[in-house]
Amino acid sequence: MAPTWQAHAPTDEYSLVENGAIAAKYLARFWQPIALSRDYKPGTAKRLKMLGKFYTLYRGQDNAIRLVQDRCPHRGTSLAYGWVEGDGIRCRYHGWKFAGDGRGENFPAETDTYARSLCLKTHPAREYLGVVFGYFGEGEPPEFQRFPELEDESAGELLSLAVVLPYNYFQRIENDVDEVHIHYTHGEFAGSFGLVDLPRISAKETEYGLMSTATRADGSKLHTHAFMPNIMLREVVIQQDLTNLTMHAAWRVPIDDANTLSVMIDRVAKPEPGFHEKLKTMVDPTELATKIMKCEMTLDDVDPSHPLLPVIQDTVCMAGQGIIADRQAEHLGASDRAIGLLRRLWTRELNALREGQPLKQWRRSDDAKLATSEMPVMAAE
What we know:
By secondary structure, the protein is α+β, with helices and mostly antiparallel strands. The chain has helices at 22-27, 112-116, 148-151, 169-176, 182-185, 187-192, 275-281, 285-293, 309-319, 337-355; strands at 32-36, 45-50, 53-59, 65-69, 83-85, 88-90, 97-98, 104-106, 122-123, 125-128, 131-134, 157-165, 200-205, 209-215, 221-227, 231-238, 241-256, 259-268, 373-374. The strands form four sheets. Strands 12, 13, 14, 15, 16, 17, 18 and 19 form an eight-stranded antiparallel sheet that branches. It has a four-stranded antiparallel sheet with strand order 2-3-4-9, with no helix packed on it. A four-stranded antiparallel sheet has the order 5-6-7-8.
């Protein structure tokens, strides 16, 4: 009899988000990160794709961020190609203008009465720790998930990043609870912090998702907290500070079935001088990963000081599974317990959503910081 952690979903529904897929409906019930705040100065409008659909995101002259339907209801041109006026946006094609709350405000060549009869579909949007979040579901959005682990300014400088990855988002979510890959995919980082012994993996469901624990021979433990449906919180080693473990949160949001927006927020204790400038001038990590997968270079050829080297390493491995992994061909083992639990939670919730049954209300019980590591207490001499 196969171990319980080898369970597969009958169909791999959690990978697909396009064309009204059930996974997209589930993800739309949660706040999702969609952009970096710094990329939107007052007057900026951009088109973005999330959960398989396009939207327009803009910052009004009043500095408020707004998320609206992408296409103008007149002739269907993307509003992102227009321009921002005050708190509203005007279409480039025929000049139709909509106010910040979506109301039709001015339609040249049309009557004021007609303008008042049409409005845009708007979506809740807010900013947190340098990131823009949007809500795509119906009705009122849920309570916004905050992370006290990242709000503590005394813990270091805030670093918010977003990278587009050329493979399915669920592979990235699974990788977040895969501790063993660190020893091979990111071996140099693990070794620098003494993470030499392969860990024993355990996993349990929690009030917010699941917690995966990696226990090593010396008794040390590293905990990965996976917040349903697509958030990871843990301590990691990053290029910007190789002297400390960094508190790291990441959201893996499907752009469509084949592409993922990976949004990361870190508190860097002792940031490398000039690390923000290095991020601006670095070679695009996806470009390097593509060259590696085309066998035009190897991972060993990548500059070891590249600011997003771990992203390049992960992209090669996860895109190497295929744009969408074939999970029916897998052979999971004891080290994959957290991955098996993650899939079962998703399968359970998607089935409940499809059948109109109650969904689990994922939440943290209080604002206390979650434990991310446990180190053995040394006996007194």
